[in-house]
Amino acid sequence: MIEFHLDERSGVSPYQQIVQQVRNALRLGMLRIGDRLPTVKEVVAQLAINPNTVLKAYRELEHEGLVSAKQGVGTFVTQTLADTSLAAHGPLRQDLQRWLTKARRAGLDDESIEALFLATFRTAAQEDIA
Amino acid sequence: MNTVLQAQGLGKKYGRRWALSDCTLDVPAGRVVGLVGPNGAGKSTLLHLAVGMLTPTSGSITVLGEAAGTSQRAKVGFVAQDTPTYNRMSVADHLRLGARLNPGWDESIATKRIERLGLDLKQRAGRLSGGQRAQLALTLGISKRPELLVLDEPVAALDPLARREFLQDLMEAVAEQELSVVLSSHLVSDVERSCDFLIVLVDSRVQVSGEIETLLATHYRISGPRRDEKSLPSAQHVISASHTDRQSTLVIRTEQPILDPAWTVSRLSLEDLVLAYMGRTSAPEQNNHRPVLEVQR
């Protein structure tokens, strides 16, 4: 069983934070196939958030095929994210390191690198949506 | 039942002063509604009208499909400001009173809650802590099994821990029972987590109301080289504006994407969104032709 927490200053909506925390737990192997997610009642009693927020997060996870809700029993993990993405981490990190070295050589300081990365990341994300 | 609260041109006048004016609202069932606004904005007046403790001077208010204050009193729970209890009466007395006065009283909810809160049944309410008194008042409100629970500033007087515990229990009740909730607060941060619907009341008028998610998705802060707000596309409604000699910063509401590349566009937090609406009334209203309630859903 995992426990959710909320970061109110993150700018990420509470429902997104729950979705991300489940995905992270799946990635890190803290949640495995067959595990039960906390019930809506348990989550709201702990975080004092609106039940609809939890329902929405669980629906999205279900839509992604990561969990499945069994009426009256609970919501269970049906898929894991651990192996597939973990294997890709290494090469991706190497690519990023190479890119970082390039950026530093071009004279960018940490702040500029971060700004450039975030701007590119956001544009790419927006293009994905559009 | 899909509407829990509906108001049409609702107003309440005390002497010559309007405590609430021209209030038009439509709140769907199953929501947790945050009613926010500064002290004296008319929040309590609106809530008292909703539970039938006041009668409107103008307009109408419908609660759970019927005119407020008639036969639906059993379906509406009300926890008044500062979660009042009877100081001289014990916890057990309060539960007996609740059972006597409410036909739909659910004894099992009441006893389970009191047990879990660790309250002594023989204790007088006057000797409970503020947080415990609030929890006792909430217990009475929940145990009558209302369809709508109205709470007036329930957590304002509580310390942060008691505040969180109160909201945790309230949300648990919402998850367990089919319950709509309206709660008022002068702090956005109190309601941000728990509510999914927001009503902003300033100077006796509803400035904006709607699903919080929709509100957050349709409001933006845009800044760029100074320009006249009248030159904005008609689909962009200016909520607040500030200008320096070179720069303009606006909070706008729009359903459409902002295409003008001159603007730097950012999202608003709920608090900033509410503040933008609050600032609007104190500023001299030049564009009075814009209907104030146009942003209502």
TrEMBL record, chain A:
GO terms for molecular function: DNA binding; DNA-binding transcription factor activity. CDD domains: WHTH_GntR. Residues 12-80 form the HTH gntR-type domain. Pfam families: GntR. Keywords: DNA-binding, Transcription, Transcription regulation. It comes from the Bacteria. SMART domains: HTH_GNTR. Coiled coil: none annotated. PANTHER family: GNTR-FAMILY TRANSCRIPTIONAL REGULATOR (PTHR38445:SF7), HTH-TYPE TRANSCRIPTIONAL REPRESSOR YTRA (PTHR38445). This is GntR family transcriptional regulator.
